[in-house]
Amino acid sequence: MKIYTRTGDAGKTGVIGGRVDKDDVRVEAYGTVDELNCFIGQAMGFLDAERDADLLADLLQIQHETFDCGSDLALLKQELRPYKVTAEMVDQLEAWIDKYDAETPDIQRFILPGGSQASSALHVCRTVCRRAERRVVTLARTQPINEEVRRYLNRLSDLFFTVARVANHRAGNGDVEYIRSAEVFRRKS
Is there a contact between 62 and 47 (Cβ–Cβ < 8 Å)? Predict the structure, then answer.
């Protein structure tokens, strides 16, 4: 199989159910999810294989699921095949958020990205995830989408914030607090 096909040389690309311009809002949405997937892989490279085995396993599952998100976003018509991203996947993200949040100290102020390389990379994942979510919101204004993808990305960015804090905590680094912030968060109950 050849890697290049030349079918996109005129500025069009294939999606599930047809061809669209390469700068189509649909391509922008799933392309940003693909970019996120790359950053997840990079962040995983900064985690400790033993200490962070649970995080690595969860992030690998998330890589598969973000691929599912992209696949659903590349689908022009839902009747072509069932959606892959489900409410249960969102529920799993929430369970992970709760589990990892319990591992970190109470948060008092806004957090700056930093501390360890892993934490910083996970914050990059968080911001790229938010951008992907914005692209999906734009797409949904004009075309039907799997609404679970939007919910998934919204929850996923929260998970990245949480695991970025976990990565710092496990590495013995505290959060990098925004010093001009008042105490804006309530204590965990």
Answer: no
Q: Is 79 exposed, middle or buried (0-12, 13-18, 19+ CB in 10 A)?
A: exposed
| Separation in Å, CA 147 to CA 73, 85, 100 | 10, 9, 26
Digit-coded pLDDT (tens) for 72-124: 999 988 777 899 999 999 999 999 999 999 999 998 888 989 999 999 999 99
By C-alpha distance, which of 29, 40, 30 is closest to 124?
40
Query: The tokens of 3 are what?
Result: 């890697």
Q: Name the residue with tokens 């360890």.
A: 116
Q: Write down the CATH superfamily of domain 12-177.
A: Cobalamin adenosyltransferase-like (1.20.1200.10)
Distance between CA atoms of residues 164 and 120, nearest Å: 7
Q: Tell which residue, 93, 103, 115, has the closest CA to residue 188.
A: 103
Q: Tokens for 7? A: 């079918």
Task: List the chain domain ranges.
Answer: 12-177
**CA–CA gap between residue 108 and residue 185 (Å, rounded):** 5
Q: Full-prediction pTM beyond 0.85?
A: yes
Q: Which of 52, 68, 175 is nearest to 123 (CA)?
A: 175
Tokens of 45: 């490279």
